[in-house]
Amino acid sequence: MCGIVGLHLRDPALYPQLGRLLVTMLGGVAERGPDSAGVAVYGDHRRCPAGYAAVSVLGPAPAVPGAVVTQAGETTVVAAPIPLDDLLDAVRGARVVGAGTDVTVFKGTGRPLDLAVTYDLANVHGWQGLAHTRMATESRVDAEGCHPFSVGPDQCLVHNGSFANHATIRRELRAEGVEFDSENDTEVGARFVAARLAAGDTLEVALKALCARFDGFYTLLVTSGDGFAVVRDAIACKPAIIAETDAWVAMASEFRALAELPGIDGARIWEPEPERVYAWAR
Fold this sequence. Notes:
By secondary structure, the protein is an alpha+beta fold. The protein has helices spanning 18-29, 84-90, 112-118, 166-175, 185-198, 203-213, and strands spanning 3-9, 36-42, 53-58, 68-72, 75-80, 95-100, 103-109, 128-134, 156-163, 216-224, 227-232, 241-244, 248-252, 268-270, 278-281. It has a single domain (3-46, 104-281), classed as Aminohydrolase, N-terminal nucleophile (Ntn) domain (Glutamine Phosphoribosylpyrophosphate, subunit 1, domain 1, 4-Layer Sandwich), CATH 3.60.20. Strands 7-2-8-1-13-12-14 form a seven-stranded antiparallel sheet, with helices on one face. A four-stranded antiparallel sheet has the order 4-5-3-6, with helices on one face. The longest helix has 14 residues, at 185-198. It is globular and about 50 Å long.
């Protein structure tokens, strides 16, 4: 099962509504995954002020001078006016689940709409966000196994489905020096994409490489500081709907998650084709 929603706003007038819109979208897929829920928001200057770097950690975080600290359930976000690498050094030893200069990530176990309240999602401002509800089929039901997986700067990946050959690819990546934090198959996909991006691939090229290398049934939504992208496997049995207007682009596992977006009546709506990468840049 699992449910995915993503919203990329083109119209700055909608930025103050991002959180409220994401809550409505999340409610449309909440029944697809009662185990846990995670969100990632880009441009929330309340929690990551302009010019700051931010890290999201599970549990308490070490004290960082001058930091803005937000605690929400199992996640603590620490933002500070220092380079990202320096901030990561300052929280060394904590379990980092997201880092960047524009993204804040929240992860936890429980019912999705209850967690949306815990994260104060309705009051979030920003230009892009995603949310995921999980019905676990791989790894433990805990915050570490919750999506999104954010393993590169300002990068997030959420996943509905399963990768059949994740153990093989995990071994290959470990042999190349890549470290893992969980046994979740989705983390393997996220690490693979992050490695390709670090090597200079565009997001579209990285996702095409994933389709060529990974076996299984999946729909993926990947976000970065530049935009977001959607791709499905060759059989495309996992549901996905995309809608687009001049004001926004949205993706969800079910149409009802899109039904209350402003201007949906005039949107172009379609089901993404198998193994075709759909990408939008800011």
